[in-house]
Design brief:
By secondary structure, the chain is mainly alpha-helical. Helix content is 81%, strand content 0%. It contains 6 helices and no strands.
Amino acid sequence: MKGSLKVIIVLLALLGLIGLSVVGTYNSLVSKNEEVDAQWAMVESKLQRRFDLIPNLVESVKGIMTQEQEVFGQIADARAQMAGAKTTEGRVAASNALEGALGRLLVVMENYPQLRSAENVSRLMDELSGTENRISVERDRYNAVVGEYNQMIRRFPGNLIAGMLGFEKKPYFEAQEGAENAPKVQF
């Protein structure tokens, strides 16, 4: 009787340790998932700042230069795509399209010195430049926490618990294809 009581106590202790491990892993996954979501919100707030600055910049540029309607159209299309994006992947794609259009606008502006010298455009360009830097920093932070989260759900025993409880891999914020090439504008 004493021997079976010891076995039961040992089994209960093992089950307790396993239970604590499962609870600890689950809580870690929840925390990391929330950290990923919070960091994505930071990226989105910076994207929104860019989204809000662009119409002012475009209108200032339009006032000085009207022949670059194609670039303005691409920016408007990219902003509409951003406004309509519902998923993280959709917002990433929209952001990349907007970056490409902005890159072309910046090249156009470099070809027009009188445009760069306009006070309003210069101020808006400084704001946009600062925003782009903030976006870059927040994207890097987002990718770092996504990497940590994705590692947690792929490592043992996290992979077992993540699989059972529906934790899924999060997407990285990646550069669009061709981003390594400078945009080219031809007149």
